[in-house]
Amino acid sequence: MKMMKKTITLLLITIAIYSCKNAEKKEGKKTLSNTEQVAQAAGFDNWDAIKEVKFTFSVGKMGRNLYDRNWTWNRHTGDVTLIASPDTVHYNRRQPMDSIQTSADRAFVNDIYWLLPEFKFITDSGTKIVEKSNAVAPISKDTLDMFTIVYSNDGGYTPGDAYDVYYDKKHNLREWVYRQQNDTTIGMMTTFEKFDTINGIKVATDHRTPDRMTRIHLTNIEFNK
């Protein structure tokens, strides 16, 4: 009888220990939001290892290139270099800027958003996100999941702006709509095309308007460790 009691007690202790460990595993596993899953699909886990970013942001219209901006950004120091022929601008994002540097930084914020929107969705502060399943995308007319990200009216170069973002089942971005000041009127909408993976970071290198006459193109991309 004593042996049976000891066996039962040991069994109960073993079950209790297993249950505790199982509960710890469940608690330790974080459920990612859709925006976090979008960022993960683009390689956000590799972002911390990246020290320097280089890329060229180009805008074209009707097959003709309108302008290029060439960027070099040191994430650790905050140093930025813009080369936009015939001008070159150097500045540090953590230091006071003059009017020319501020103008360059406005362009940088815009261009880096085109390069890495998936990361900006989860790292930018002062945002509100509303999610919706099975929405009809405005360009392709495909049924996709989507979320709307709205920026607060405080701070930043474009406060109050909103983006409607459409993504597929693999959490890859497919289309987005920009709405100035969260207005119902669409400011611009483009596709996400020609994905390329550089050093573990996935980027859509080509964006087209619905008529495919306007093109946002990203080239010479480097993510250096």
Oligomer classification: single chain
CATH topology (level 3) name of the largest domain = outer membrane lipoprotein receptor (LolB), chain A
The CATH C-level name of the largest domain is Mainly Beta
Beta-strand portion reads 35-45%
Strand order of the largest sheet: 4-3-2-1-12-11-10
Counting helices, strands and paired strands, the structural category is: alpha+beta
Number of domains: 2
Q: State the share of residues found in helices, binned by percent.
A: 25-40%
* C-alpha geometry: globular
Largest sheet: 7 strands, antiparallel
Cα-atom Rg, whole angstroms? 23 Å
Q: Please tell me the CATH architecture of the largest domain by its name.
A: Clam
Task: Encode the helix/strand succession as letters.
Answer: HHEEEEHHEEEEEEEE
- Compute the separation of the termini in Å: 66 Å
Number of H/I helices? 4
Low-confidence stretches: 2-21
Number of extended strands: 12
What is the residue-averaged pLDDT?
91
Protein name: Selenophosphate synthetase
